Amino acid sequence: MKNDILKMAYSPENFRKQGHVLIDQLADHFNSSINRESEKVIRWSPPEDEYAYWKGFLKDGKTPKLFPEIIERSIHLHNPKYIGHQVCPPAPMASLSALISASLNNGAAVYEMGMVPTAMEKIITEFINSKIGYDENSRGFLTSGGTLANLTALLSARKAILDIDIWNEGQNQNLGIMVCEEAHYCIERAAKIMGLGTKGIIKIPASKGFNMDVSLLETYYKKALKENIKVFAVVGSAPSTATGMYDDLETLASFCSNHKLWLHVDGAHGGASIFSSKYKHTVKSIQHADSVVIDGHKMMMMPSITTALLYKNGHHSHTTFSQKADYLLEQSEHEDWYNLAKRTFECTKTMMGIQWYTLLKTYGEDIFDENVTVLYDLGKYFGSLVSDHPDFELAIEPMSNIVCFRYITGSKDTTELNALNASIRQHLLEDGEYYIVQTKLRGIHYLRTTIMNPFTSKKDLNGLLKKIKSIADNIRI
């Protein structure tokens, strides 16, 4: 070979050397982050500055410091003062299993290409189904994220509930789903992808507690019927993304049973509470849902992106799609659970089952219980801390590890307080010691924390409020 670049790129010895160095760098990063030796969670850089930096970096011809530079300039999720988005600090063993997936690159959509992850995936989904409370007729699979899983579930619902073959004949009537106005935006996106349009997304107002006002279900359902909209599914949030509040799944299950509708539970974030003996009451009656979504990369300590989509009646997991690819998939009279491309959007699927299987095999299911319980306990503690502090106000008493609050001292004017809290958040971002986000609820600007790191301490949370108060005092000067 005249050009040795390919030999160099595929050199096992180069990989061994570089891999050992990278693992050491990551281990040092985990150590400094978890033990709070790193001063900052984020080193904020405006978009244009970051773009210019990496454009210049690409031209400098040096590679040895590439990985350390990526680590340094990224958000440090393993730092206990990361209390921002709903993405977990992955357990190191899960990250190593993801390395196996990335290295072997066996596509898991067709059994011949992914024998190991396909078998593991079936074991994992059977395990999750048992925790939900489903029986042996249930099925499930893993897919690339909650957005895709929710879309797939709603496609399954449409096919199961309607007596027309939309997949082959097209849609010729007004269809709709019912969902709380506080639901994740991916539900509306899925509905519009499905061609339901704005009128087909029947948004039920939220109660004072920011979850679905189930007392309005019958009213909105009858209104849809009068408008000639055929409702086929109700989506319950477990919990909503903005506030962390769970919908009343028990009432939703009863409503759907009475009207012969599909109940789908978007538990991407908090569906993992099925593993917590202390907090599983948050998803009471989840076993009556026709389908459930649970993310591995949120509350289950896995790298992005992996999501379980579970079905109470496993038949529906096989009938959503009906597109034949003779060179890939054989037609089978029996249930070919091992050819996952028939059941998912993906025609190429990563070996994501390895991550779930590795954590379960290495630590047992107790690790999921402990993680959810610790994080939700911290959410409760932080909610009490905010509630008891005269300078702060809760949006709502938290049900999970998501807490929305705001600084209220110095003004009673909503516009002024909104501007003050937005400014506080920007100062926190640029300071970098803590990382939190923000949200608007009914016109009020709140600071929003999602406690995703089990090593976040009460001291860290107290420190956050002290820092916010200090920032607020300086802003007012």
Shape: globular
Task: State the total count of DSSP E strands.
Answer: 11
User: Structural class from helices and strands?
Assistant: alpha/beta
Q: What portion of residues is helical?
A: 40-55%
**Low-confidence blocks of residues:** 323-333
CA(first)-CA(last) distance: 69 Å
Strand residues, percent = 5-15%
Summed over residues and divided by their number, the pLDDT gives a mean of 92
Largest sheet: 7 strands, mixed
The helix tally amounts to 17
Order of helix and strand elements from N to C terminus:
HHHHHHEHHEHEHEHEEHEHHHEEHEEH
Structure description:
- The chain has 477 residues and is an alpha/beta fold.
- Helix content is 44%, strand content 12%.
- A hairpin with a 7-residue loop joins strand 8 (392-394) and strand 9 (402-407).
- It is globular.
- The protein starts with a helix and ends with a helix.
- Residues 323-333 have low confidence and may be disordered.
Summarize the structure.
This protein is of the alpha/beta class. The protein has helices at about 5-10, 10-35, 45-60, 65-75, 90-105, 115-130, 145-160, 165-170, 185-195, 215-225, 250-260, 295-300, 315-320, 355-365, 365-390, 415-430, 460-475, and strands at about 140-145, 175-180, 200-205, 230-235, 260-265, 290-295, 305-310, 390-395, 400-405, 435-440, 445-450. The protein is globular, with a radius of gyration of 24 Å.
Label this structure with key terms.
477 residues, alpha/beta, seven-stranded mixed β-sheet, 12% strand, single chain
Q: What's the SSE blueprint?
A:
Elements: H1 5-9, H2 12-34, H3 47-59, H4 66-73, H5 92-104, H6 115-132, E1 139-143, H7 146-161, H8 166-169, E2 175-180, H9 185-193, E3 201-204, H10 217-226, E4 230-237, H11 249-259, E5 262-266, E6 291-295, H12 296-299, E7 307-311, H13 316-319, H14 353-363, H15 366-388, E8 392-394, E9 402-407, H16 414-431, E10 437-441, E11 444-450, H17 458-476
Parallel strand pairs: 2-3, 2-4, 4-5, 5-6
Antiparallel strand pairs: 1-7, 6-7, 8-9, 9-11, 10-11
Helix pairs in contact: 5-14, 6-14, 7-9, 15-17, 16-17
